[in-house]
Design brief:
Elements (H helix, E strand, L loop, with lengths): L1 E6 L5 E7 L4 E5 L2 H4 L2 H13 L21 E8 L2 E8 L4 E5 H7 L3 E3 L2 H10 L2 E3 L6 E3 L14 E3 L1 H15 L16 H16 L7 H16 L1
Antiparallel strand pairs: 1-2, 2-3, 3-6, 4-5, 5-6, 7-10, 8-9
Helix pairs in contact: 2-5, 2-7, 4-6, 5-7, 6-7
Amino acid sequence: MTNLELGARSGSRLDIDLCPACRAIWFDRYEDLQMAPAATLKVFGIISAQSGAPTTPLTGALRCPRCQGRLLLTHDIQNTTPFRYWRCDAGHGRLMAYIDFLREKDFVRPLTPQQLDELRQNVQTINCSNCGAAIDLARDSVCAHCGSAVSMLDLQQMTRTIGHLQSAAAGQAPADATHAAPPLREPADINALMLALKAEERTSSAPNLIETGLGLLGVLLRKKL
């Protein structure tokens, strides 16, 4: 794993460990809650930069980097979005895949029926963002292999969150709702995804909604930073 030094909300420093091959993050106890706004933006940038990269699945007996105890697979839920992580039973921390870090932060959500209809008009088959299995959109809205619903990265929420994090990192209060820029319309969100998926279909037989969204997140971060 690669060590990354980040700023904490308290003004101190904290270290997280990244595994680029597995696309996973090790957080010591409560580190994911202690990250300063600028640190969270940095992690978002790392995640988006590795979209589409080959991934080594997290399988087998995973060990705590602090005590070498076996990590326990744990399932949780954020609103209606399930996510998972591997935790140290001694309380040293937890290991999370990038996608589950985004799920925990409520940045990944199932598509609405209207979005599913629009997706079906543009794409026939996608890869499940959870297990990678192919999903035939003409027949299914959930993965037949693992049961995960077809989900996408919530670009509107990411846009709002990045704006708030940038303001906080600069020592500014969040913009007053009466003077804030108008939110993105839902069609703009899904249309941006549709255009990116069409481009991917020319080189990939079954695109992945989350990976495509991460590519768009990288574009968004480059514009904002």
